[in-house]
């Protein structure tokens, strides 16, 4: 009987892995089928392993990304991280977090996460994981319009892979071709797309082959070869319709509209442009709707319908302005991130140079120590200089250590440092059977503050929030920014009742914050989830997970409230 149960468990685990693989494949080709399959898996999440649950919530975030629900996607990624996934899944989760940051227009955070992920990737020993991660990174760079970075990373991925893994090779080839297209290297891009279409078709990756066909069509359109562009676009459209890939279909329709206009086939141009223009305005279709309205304006102008032509052009101009503003914000964030990175490297190099100088002078001092009394005065001077250098290096080291431990905006502990300190406190508490509580907090509807009043006001709210809480803390409480608008307080020697009373006081203090000094009038509230250690807990992770489930319930209870963990909350959907 045991063998039968074990075998059925293995079969079920393998079946769930297969189901998640199907969802992941559908997510890039047939979103509606992916969502239906995802809901089916979600109904059986209590039968999933920790790794499978992490994958499940990562895919739920991808679903929200496709639906442009970026705040919900961010929350799903938070849940995915609570299941302690392996390194490769963690990297994927953080790359999707870059995408949600882009959707939330927090480009500085997006580039900061990119830099973090690049350092993570460099530490991987397995080249196949490294290459697959580079390919995911390339998709993010494409969204951020960082085409020079795309060229660099795609070449790096191709050099690492050397054709060993066909799937990775196909994605790297495609992104390399797209980067050359976006940097207007049209002849090279056309050849690269052709090579990619042929290679990936043979290797059994038809979707990438179709994307390569579309790439050749865009090159033909950009170089005014409209007959060739029409043929290639119709071929790509037929294949995309098999996959029901709506985003790509919309782009092909928009290019067909413009192509038929330049071929003087105005009815066909109007037909395909209207197919796109009938779609609602969303972040992922601004460019294609702009192209469609430009086509309709040109067609109306050719027919002498100048009022209609003007109306379509007004819409196209408004969309162009929106796209241009997005590009400027992305470019500014990109340049700021690059500047921050260069500045950090400069400071680190300066510290290393100081250290090398210190060691060189120390060596000289030791060699000349016994050479002559005539140099005693000089040696005293060198000693003083060395002391000053040591003090300077020590101060710089402390400064860098403090920067590494603290959150740059609020000044409280960052996630890594806060959890390390709290883990030490937790171990001490468990050793003497003392209570230990965890309080997770999330500022309610924080995205609305950023969207309505700007990120400067959002930063003011975060700093004001932390300053209010710091006054309430005990000396051994560990106050930590977990990321974004989520915070934690790790509370040694505090039982659940005491922690709950503290959380209610904290919630009331936050609700009473006067926001007039920010220059705007709005309210700040916070949702809180609390858990307390029991004798079976071996680390902080279970406490954080339980507090996160309680926080999840607090949000669904209407926000601005405190919820303590109960056993019935084991599953977020319960």
From TrEMBL:
SUPFAM superfamilies: Nucleotide cyclase, TPR-like. The keyword Plastid does not apply. Its cofactor is Mg(2+). One of its GO terms (molecular function) is diguanylate cyclase activity. Its EC number is 2.7.7.65. The chain crosses the membrane at residues 373-395. GO terms for biological process: cell adhesion involved in single-species biofilm formation; negative regulation of bacterial-type flagellum-dependent cell motility. Residues 434-567 form the GGDEF domain. SMART domains: GGDEF. NCBIfam families: GGDEF (TIGR00254). This is diguanylate cyclase. The lineage of its organism: Bacteria, Pseudomonadati, Pseudomonadota, Gammaproteobacteria, Alteromonadales.
């Amino acid at each position: 009987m045991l063998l039968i149960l074990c075998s059925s468990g293995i079969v079920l685990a393998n079946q769930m892995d297969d189901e998640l693989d199907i969802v992941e494949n559908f997510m890039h080709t047939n979103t509606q089928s992916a969502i239906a399959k995802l809901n089916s898996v979600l109904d059986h999440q209590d039968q999933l392993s920790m790794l499978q649950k992490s994958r499940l919530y990562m895919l739920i975030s991808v679903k929200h990304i496709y639906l442009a629900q970026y705040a919900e996607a961010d929350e799903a990624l938070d849940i995915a991280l609570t299941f302690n996934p392996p390194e490769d899944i963690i990297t994927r989760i953080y790359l999707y977090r870059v995408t949600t940051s882009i959707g939330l227009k927090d480009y500085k955070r997006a580039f900061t996460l990119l830099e973090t992920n690049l350092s993570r990737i460099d530490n991987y020993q397995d080249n196949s994981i490294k290459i697959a991660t580079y390919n995911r990174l390339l998709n993010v760079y494409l969204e951020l319009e960082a085409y020079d970075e795309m060229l660099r990373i795609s070449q790096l991925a191709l050099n690492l892979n050397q054709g060993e893994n066909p799937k990775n090779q196909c994605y790297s080839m495609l992104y390399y071709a797209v980067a050359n297209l976006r940097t207007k290297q049209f002849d090279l891009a056309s050849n690269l797309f052709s090579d990619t279409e042929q290679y990936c078709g043979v290797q059994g990756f038809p979707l990438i082959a179709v994307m390569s066909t579309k790439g050749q069509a865009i090159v033909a359109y950009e170089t005014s070869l409209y007959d060739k562009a029409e043929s290639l676009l119709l071929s790509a459209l037929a294949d995309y319709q098999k996959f029901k890939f709506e985003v790509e279909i919309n782009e092909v329709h928009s290019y067909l509209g413009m192509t038929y206009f330049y071929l003087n086939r105005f009815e066909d141009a109007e037909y395909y442009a209207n197919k796109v223009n009938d779609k609602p305005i969303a972040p992922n279709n601004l460019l294609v709707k702009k192209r469609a309205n430009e086509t309709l304006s040109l067609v109306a102008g050719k027919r002498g319908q100048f009022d209609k032509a003007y109306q379509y052009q007004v819409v196209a101009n408004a969309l162009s302005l929106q796209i241009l503003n997005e590009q400027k914000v992305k470019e500014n964030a990109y340049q700021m991130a690059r500047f921050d990175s260069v500045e950090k490297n400069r400071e680190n190099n300066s510290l290393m140079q100081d250290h090398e100088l210190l060691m060189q002078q120390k060596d000289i001092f030791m060699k000349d120590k016994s050479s002559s009394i005539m140099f005693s005065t000089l040696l005293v001077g060198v000693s003083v200089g060395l002391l000053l250098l040591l003090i300077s290096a020590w101060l710089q080291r402390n400064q860098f250590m403090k920067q590494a431990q603290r959150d740059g905006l609020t000044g409280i502990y960052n996630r890594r440092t806060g959890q390390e300190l709290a883990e030490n406190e937790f171990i001490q508490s468990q050793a003497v059977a003392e209570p230990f509580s965890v309080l997770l907090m999330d500022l309610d509807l924080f995205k609305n503050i950023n969207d309505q009043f700007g990120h400067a006001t959002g930063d003011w709210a975060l700093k004001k929030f932390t300053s209010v809480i710091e006054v309430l803390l005990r000396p051994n409480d560990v106050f930590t920014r977990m990321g974004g608008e989520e915070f934690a307080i790790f509370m040694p020697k505090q039982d659940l009742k005491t922690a709950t009373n503290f959380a209610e006081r904290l919630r009331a203090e936050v609700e009473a914050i006067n926001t007039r000094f920010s220059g705007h009038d709005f309210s700040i509230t916070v949702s809180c989830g609390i858990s307390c250690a029991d004798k079976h807990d071996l680390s902080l992770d279970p406490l954080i997970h339980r507090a996160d489930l309680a926080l999840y319930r607090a949000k669904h209870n209407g926000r601005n409230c405190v919820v303590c963990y109960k056993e019935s909350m084991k599953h977020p959907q319960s």
